[in-house]
Specification:
This protein has 671 residues and is α+β, with helices and mostly antiparallel strands. Among the domains are: 6-74 and 216-256, 2-Layer Sandwich (Nucleotidyltransferase, domain 5); 79-204, Rossmann fold; 486-588, 2-Layer Sandwich (Dna Ligase, domain 1), CATH 3.30.1490. It is 31% helix and 28% strand. The protein has 16 helices and 37 strands. The strands form ten sheets. Strands 13, 14, 15, 20, 25, 26, 33, 36 and 37 form a nine-stranded mixed β-sheet that branches. A six-stranded mixed β-sheet has the order 3-2-1-4-11-12, sandwiched between helices. Helix 12 (409-431) packs across helix 13 (451-462). The protein is globular. The protein starts with 5 loop residues before the first strand and ends in a 5-residue tail after the last strand.
């Protein structure tokens, strides 16, 4: 990657963020409004960044991209018309699920509707057990079934047969025949998730089928627009925190479901690791226009999970472990039936956006509250070009105050700020306290357009004493795209008690997995393969994942599992341990980013009244890019840059690092 011009583009709900790195180490960032067809905004962002950098888009050597196409399809129920083919007698697995209510104590709570309604769920005569195929599938039956699927208007097909994770022969026949007969993509469970648990495997396969047409169509448009600019075909950020070629993602669309948030966590790990070497880890806090995403980085590694849900649909593919709440800069404040002030999850989006954008929006939002509190000023220019209408923000909040029984717009702004912060504090507790981690031992990495405005207040409420604000905090997900390694995952169920395992047989299974992952790598000679295993005590329902060495050592793996179990749950047992799944991840590491930071100059811009500790204070406003390495800032202060604003409350202070990262320390009670 030496001497290359790299560009990363991340699409969010409100803005599309761009980070461009030149061969000389110059970092150029840009932010443009997101568009209905995301590829349009992506191209505009590339053009803007290249124009600011003084280069032609054709000079870009590497283009990496994160988008919200698949997650939007799931959240908005706007995916493909999908059919499901399954084993006779198992048509309703997708609907029965785990028979768990979304809210344990709400007897009227509704579960989300299945992605595939019953009329488009089809059965085929076949049977496999964990020991092998008992009844082979009849190809003529599958060809007849293809006619029924076509008549049902299916745009995509999911195939999930019983025990296909262990013996995929029948499922392979069904998928091959349907691909011959139908002009529609077919997702087969043994290709999507070769892992036991019928409901989760079927759900993940259905999600893959549901989002595949949207991903395929979107990437087609993006590749065409990129070609017109002379920009390379993009590599795509996956939910696992690694990138993959667009051609690979088209075949595994479900891997893109948390693309953008994953890029942000990778960017946080890249820029903030080492800022607090005495810390147990980092809490990453990404507050954008629509939502806030929280995750953990421990020992320099991004936390991952295989147990996630989006809009109530389980997805078992590996992904960065992100907790999301509907509280972003564009989140709308409202009063519920009990006269309580609420914030989100509904958002004003990019158009018309918050009232202060001056684009016709009238709903009061978190951004409007920050304007009234003085954290964002009328002289600010979001994205370098969007001026703010302070009067419109005040009018919107005054209307909310009337409905909420509050004194004035300021009281409404204070309430919105507190409620939004409470929502985000709960999200941070969910990934720390609720998982046995003490947040006081972590640093908080703040990014996103709104994150650095709220970070110190959140840290105060959690007794966190260090806040790290990366230089590219407003577009850190885009920056993370420049640093992300290529990653490909593969899994296979291999349920055996550790005491009964044949080490050579396990190593043979790993060899097969490694071959599968390396097939997806552009240059296998550059890849390293990491092994892992899912284990549990016999009788438990869920597993913990631990690393495995080059040769499977049952005693060493068992010891790692006991340690992991004690760390996660506070105890270990003497019960026997069983292996459930074996995993392999092929990684092609990118060269580390070499970013130069100069800064310096006249950083002081002006002053304005900002609200701290119950009163307005005359607060200095700085141009953050004017602060050189080693510069210090004492609160209260406000640091502005094109894509974000940092609020430094009283009793906090900050120091600028050699790479432009701002580290805030201490603490105190402030609004």
């Amino acid at each position: 990657m030496d001497a290359e011009t790299r560009i990363g583009v991340d699409v969010g709900g409100t803005f599309t963020d761009v980070a461009l790195l030149t061969p000389e180490g110059r970092l150029v960032t840009a932010k443009v409004p997101s568009t209905d067809d995301q590829s349009v905004g992506v191209v505009r962002g590339i053009e803007k960044a290249c124009d600011d950098a003084g280069i032609d888009p054709a000079e870009v050597d590497a283009f990496t991209h994160a988008m919200t196409v698949s997650v939007n399809a799931l959240l908005e129920d706007d995916g493909a018309t999908t059919a499901l083919v399954t084993t006779e007698g198992f048509r309703d697995v997708l609907e029965i699920g785990r028979q768990a209510r979304p809210d344990l104590y709400d007897v009227t709570a509704d579960k989300p509707d299945p992605l595939v309604p019953r009329r488009r769920r089809f059965e085929v005569t076949e049977r496999a057990t964990v020991d092998g195929i008992q009844t082979e599938v009849d190809e003529s039956e599958v060809r007849a079934l293809a006619d029924d699927i076509r008549d049902a208007g299916a745009e995509s097909v999911a195939v999930s047969l019983l025990h296909a994770y262990q013996h995929p022969e029948n499922e392979r026949v069904v998928a091959d025949v349907l691909r011959e007969e139908l002009d529609a993509p077919v997702s087969a469970s043994h290709e999507v998730l070769a892992e036991f648990r019928e409901f989760e495997r079927t759900s993940t396969t259905a999600v893959d089928a549901y989002v595949t047409p949207a991903i395929d169509s979107y990437l087609g448009r993006l590749e065409s627009r990129a070609a017109d600019l002379g920009v390379p075909v993009p590599e795509i950020m996956q939910a696992n925190g690694g990138i993959a070629p667009a051609s690979t993602v088209r075949e595994h669309a479900v891997t893109t479901t948390m693309s953008g948030p994953a890029a942000g966590v990778v960017g946080a790990a890249e820029t903030a690791t080492g800022s607090g070497d005495d810390l147990a880890g980092l809490v990453t806090f990404d507050m954008g226009g629509t939502s806030s995403d929280v995750s953990l980085v421990r020992d320099g590694e991004v936390e991952r999970t295989t147990d996630a849900e989006i809009n109530g649909r389980p997805i078992k593919t590996p992904m960065v472990d992100v907790n999301t709440v509907g509280a972003g800069g564009g989140s709308i404040a409202w009063v519920d039936s009990g006269d309580a002030l609420r914030v989100g999850p509904r958002s004003s989006g990019a158009n018309p956006g918050p009232a202060c954008y001056g684009r016709g929006g009238t709903d009061p939002t978190v951004t409007d509250a920050n304007v009234v509190l003085g954290y964002i000023g009328g002289s600010s220019a979001l994205g370098g070009e969007l001026s703010l209408d302070v009067d419109a923000a005040r009018d919107a909040l005054a209307g909310l105050a009337d409905g909420a029984g509050l004194d004035d717009a300021l009281a409404a702004a204070r309430g919105i700020y507190r409620v939004a912060n409470a929502n985000m504090t709960r999200a941070i507790r969910a990934v720390t306290v609720e998982r046995g981690h003490d947040p006081r031992q972590f640093g908080l990495v703040a990014f996103g357009g709104a994150g650095p405005m709220h970070a110190a207040a959140l840290a105060d409420s959690l007794d966190i004493e260090t806040v790290v604000v990366p230089r590219a905090c407003g577009v850190l997900s885009a920056y993370g795209l420049l640093a992300a390694d290529q990653k490909h995952d593969s899994v296979r169920t291999l349920r055996r008690p550790l005491s009964d395992l044949d080490g050579e047989a396990v190593d043979a299974a790993y060899a097969d997995l490694e071959a599968d992952t390396l097939d997806d790598v552009a240059d296998p000679d550059e890849a390293t393969v990491r092994r892992a295993a899912d284990l549990r005590y016999v009788g438990q329902s869920f597993e913990l994942t631990v690393p495995v060495g080059e040769a499977f050592d049952a005693e060493a793996v068992e010891a790692r599992f006991h340690e992991a179990h004690e760390s996660a749950y506070g105890y270990r047992l003497d019960d026997p341990v069983e292996l459930v799944n074996v995993r392999a991840t092929a990684v092609v590491e990118r060269d580390p980013l070499d970013v130069t930071y100069r800064g310096g100059g006249d950083a002081r811009k002006d002053t304005r009244e900002a609200f701290f500790d119950g009163v307005f204070r005359e607060t200095p406003v700085y141009d953050r890019d004017g602060l050189g390495a080693g510069a210090t800032v004492e609160g209260p202060a406000i640091l502005e840059q094109h894509e974000s604003t940092v609020v430094v409350p009283p009793a906090w202070g900050g120091t600028v690092g050699a790479d432009g990262t701002l580290v805030l320390t201490s603490g105190g009670d402030g609004e």
